[in-house]
């Protein structure tokens, strides 16, 4: 898979340290803050696909649903740093946190590269109530796309590492996502589905590795499912009357674009009813769970700064905005 | 689905004649040849998704796997003509041919709009041997994307209707496609799969509406399947030592991007062995068959003129090139 990616997109991406798992931009910009992400395979276009102009500079990737190693993250860090420091943006999973923290320490002590980190968690379903100061259990899912986009645009404007971090944190705090799965997926090494969902059933709130959802039930219409998810998303931040948002309608792998647009229509109706204005819709496969059938919805609450960053151009293998 | 499309992409597309099935560009260019396509729903991003800047100007769309009507095609034709005439580019299916021919006659007699047509047929599996002068049985499948791209770029350069037609015909003649299906799909109105493929089986050469393929057999590795398809594709045109091609690796709906890149890797190896040079790879879902699992491969033989047109920018809901 990785070899195919490099063959197809050699104008935008290459790899470092003789390791195809260590993907870096083919168009390094001197003096710019480098942005790296990473995570397990099986989520294309996440994470690899957002390395390019105006977004990320590097990405280390592990086996399917497994974290890359700290050494791989460090190799990417070294390759993309050009003196302005490196920002890590990744999802809230223990393996990734452990390895990225170790890579950041190694970069600091061994390479004298300043690294800051933003851990994104946008999933409504996994946000268990926690005491103040406790670590969030909120998983990072498709909404991390918005964090990449805003941080990438900020770095392209040659902002400092601290500024890019501030923007990434603000963006991450303004995103909420919820998913629904209609089928399971097969991790190739395992060779059979990790769980099963009945033919007429669905699992609302399921994670992108098959983590259990918050409600298992019979299939309902696209409109009803959309309403149920939006109700939880809107209440969670909360998004309020007069807010402006970007919306991501994300296919999890096997769900048709037709169905994604049926859901898009309902989102528009629902948000109009709440007087929440949509700045832009992004519809398609942005973060998948292999061949899982299902969809996730993300709302990203905008202010003037974030909106302007979302409108900047970008060119990566999977996301192009003019 | 259509309402969702208009909501999400109002900067690029709108509709005419108070009929959401009659999609037209939101950015009409005066004096430019208009390009229209059309066909059944269920193939997103085909056909609708390629209306925008640098590609198509209009598209009429029918129910799932059904042709739009001649009246709908005519409505689109009237909306996109600005005096330079309109070119129809569509796939080789009887319903579409019948309706587009009727629309062209009505445009000519009733509206005084000059219409020319190019019927694209790129599918290797459906090309039954025919006597000279006989109508081709070759179906139009994913490769029509290349025809849209070249014709759209030519029209954007303000070439005449005859010139745009010449380029579209040359492009169409240089494309060959072959598909493999691993599962069926459900036409919503019917509510059950139109055919079945065993869990461990595949159908090589299957059409995007489930038309029978040329070989049914047990599943094989991605490399073996790719080699078998490329052998037939390369022999059919034929593509020869020293040729330069654009390559389209197209997911049919439920097949992961990971798998598409595994196939991309093998294509690169295979064509290198034949000394056929790849100009660019296009990988992703470009023409689907609802939620069918499977993939199609297209080769597009380039000359200097076609290559230059492929490199021009485009911006549509589904295809953006900078």
Automatic annotation (TrEMBL), chains A, B:
<dbReference type="InterPro" id="IPR050861">
    <property type="entry name" value="Dihydroxyacetone_Kinase"/>
</dbReference>
<keyword id="KW-0418">Kinase</keyword>
<keyword id="KW-0547">Nucleotide-binding</keyword>
<dbReference type="GO" id="GO:0005829">
    <property type="term" value="C:cytosol"/>
</dbReference>
<dbReference type="Pfam" id="PF02733">
    <property type="entry name" value="Dak1"/>
</dbReference>
<dbReference type="GO" id="GO:0004371">
    <property type="term" value="F:glycerone kinase activity"/>
</dbReference>
<protein>
    <submittedName>
        <fullName>PTS-dependent dihydroxyacetone kinase, dihydroxyacetone-binding subunit DhaK</fullName>
        <ecNumber>2.7.-.-</ecNumber>
    </submittedName>
</protein>
<feature type="domain" description="DhaK">
    <location>
        <begin position="1"/>
        <end position="319"/>
    </location>
</feature>
<dbReference type="GO" id="GO:0019563">
    <property type="term" value="P:glycerol catabolic process"/>
</dbReference>
<dbReference type="InterPro" id="IPR004006">
    <property type="entry name" value="DhaK_dom"/>
</dbReference>
<dbReference type="GO" id="GO:0005524">
    <property type="term" value="F:ATP binding"/>
</dbReference>
<keyword id="KW-0067">ATP-binding</keyword>
<keyword id="KW-0808">Transferase</keyword>
């Amino acid at each position: 898979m990785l070899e195919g990616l490099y063959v197809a997109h050699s104008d935008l991406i290459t790899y470092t340290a003789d390791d195809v798992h260590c993907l870096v931009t083919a168009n390094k910009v001197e003096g710019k803050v480098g942005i790296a992400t990473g995570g397990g395979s099986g989520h294309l276009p996440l994470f690899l696909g957002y390395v390019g102009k105006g977004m990320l500079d590097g990405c280390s990737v592990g086996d399917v649903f497994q974290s890359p190693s700290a050494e791989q993250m460090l190799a990417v860090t070294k390759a993309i740093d050009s003196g302005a420091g490196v920002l890590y943006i990744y999802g809230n999973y223990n393996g990734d946190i452990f390895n990225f923290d170790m890579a950041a320490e190694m970069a600091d002590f061994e390479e004298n590269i300043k690294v800051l980190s933003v851990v994104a968690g946008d999933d409504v379903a996994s946000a268990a109530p926690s005491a103040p100061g406790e670590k969030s259990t909120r998983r990072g899912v498709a909404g991390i796309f918005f964090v990449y986009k805003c941080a990438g645009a900020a770095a392209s404007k040659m902002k400092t590492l601290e500024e890019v971090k501030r923007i990434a944190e603000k963006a991450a705090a303004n995103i909420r996502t919820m998913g629904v799965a209609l089928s399971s997926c097969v991790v190739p090494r395992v060779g059979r589905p990790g769980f099963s969902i009945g033919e007429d059933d669905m699992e609302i709130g399921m994670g992108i590795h098959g983590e259990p959802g918050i409600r298992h039930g019979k299939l309902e219409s696209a409109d009803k499912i959309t309403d149920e998810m939006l109700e939880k998303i809107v209440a969670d931040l909360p998004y309020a009357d007069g807010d402006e948002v970007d919306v991501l309608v994300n296919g999890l792998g096997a769900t048709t674009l037709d169905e994604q647009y049926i859901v898009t229509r309902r989102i528009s109706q629902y948000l109009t009813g709440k007087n929440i204005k949509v700045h832009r819709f992004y519809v398609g496969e942005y973060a998948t769970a292999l061949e899982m059938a299902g969809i996730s919805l993300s709302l990203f609450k905008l202010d003037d700064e974030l909106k302007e960053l979302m409108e900047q151009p970008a060119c990566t293998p999977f996301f192009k905005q003019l």
